[in-house]
Known about the structure:
Strand order of the largest sheet: 9-8-7-6-10-11-12
Radius of gyration: 21 Å
Number of strands: 12
Bound molecules: glutamic acid
Number of helices: 17
CATH topology of the largest domain: Rossmann fold
Strand content: 15-25%
CATH class of the largest domain: Alpha Beta
CATH superfamily of the largest domain: NAD(P)-binding Rossmann-like Domain
Order of helices and strands: HHHHEEEHEHEHHEHEEHHEEHEHEHHHH
Distance between the termini: 24 Å
Amino acid sequence: xxxxxxxxxxxxxxxxxxxxxxxxxxxxxxxxxxxxxxxxxxxxxxxxxxxxxxxxxxxxxxxxxxxxxxxxxxxxxxxxxxxxxxxxxxxxxxxxxxxxxxxxxxxxxxxxxxxxxxxxxxxxxxxxxxxxxxxxxxxxxxxxxxxxxxxxxxxxxxxxxxxxxxxxxxxxxxxxxxxxxxxxxxxxxxxxxxxxxxxxxxxxxxxxxxxxxxxxxxxxxxxxxxxxxxxxxxxxxxxxxxxxxxxxxxxxxxxxxxxxxxxxxxxxxxxxxxxxxxxxxxxxxxxxxxxxxxxxxxxxxxxxxxxxxxxxxxxxxxxxxxxxxxxxxxxxxxxxxxxxxxxxxxxxxxxxxxxxxxxxxxxxxxxxxxxxxxxxxxxxxxxxxxxxxxxxxxxxxxxxxxxxxxxxxxxxxxxxxxxxxxxxxxxxxxxxxxxxxxxxxxxxxxx
Length: 447
Ligand code: GLU
């Protein structure tokens, strides 16, 4: 059977076996479509049913998370950990706490993570987890009680050589601290490498907090460099205002670009003088307020409620909010407004229809699994420091991150050329990530 037909059969079976999980289907579709040329060259992958095995997580854990709020009311949430693939190392990937979380979201994220982690070239497999718990509006003590209950089940599945969770949407340093404390208490083990994204006071690594956002911008800079260009003087829009967005904005400014707009789920802020990142950090990380508070301090800026940030014209667009946030209509608006480069900071923020619009309009595009891999790469560096009981300086850690992002960029670029699709970073990332996982799986035999 030709590779193209085989892919259709496999995709049909993924949809049948995982009903209602549209985000997972979407992530699988995108990878399968772009690895067809690699399957044509490697008959051994099909013989060993590598793709079928990759699409089936090694283990999926779903559990009850009961907790009590500040008024004594009991709540029940659902917890997930999907251990997708351990061919390259212990399962590795974040935890997402958001009301939209269900098995299909965790599986799409775990599937993406597997290839992303492979692209870093580091010894980490792929996994993801989370809960439909909504931390917004909850007190610190409520979040702590939730995290303790979550870890009371999760602890039996994780470990520094087994599965190493970290943060994602809704899980930052505060949550990782509570999760680590409970793991330590239950197991009676100070196992630093069991979680990454830890605070600097108890085994965290320099630059982990900044790494995803900085890495996205380093990737953008590498893409621009291939045509002798740079971010200097560029007008940039970054969606979101969470951890990835904040540090992407910071790095764009350090490299001479200007971020003129960013957003949260209530709307966006437009500040033509450049987003004041310190103010944004204060609002989002310290006060945990909505983005509209920005204009109280910077009255020349505008807050626009309930509209898409992609209506603000820019040369470079960096989606850092959430999956499927750029629709085909947004893509048309961006291309018409002069956008020539889109670099994904979030996981799968661009719909497949929008990806097609960008391709047809000649807009250069970097998929998240390559461009946002700096976060998990810095997590692997944190694991390395924990294992050797070492801690590196900020400057050294940032240099390592920059090298890793350059390396990921160059391999995506070279793989796309090798397969006759120069400039197609989606193909480059998917084939390079897939080949690495496939080779290790072949070596391990049928497991
Ligand atoms: N959640 C992040 C990601 O999407 C980081 C995962 C990690 O550090 O393990 O890559």
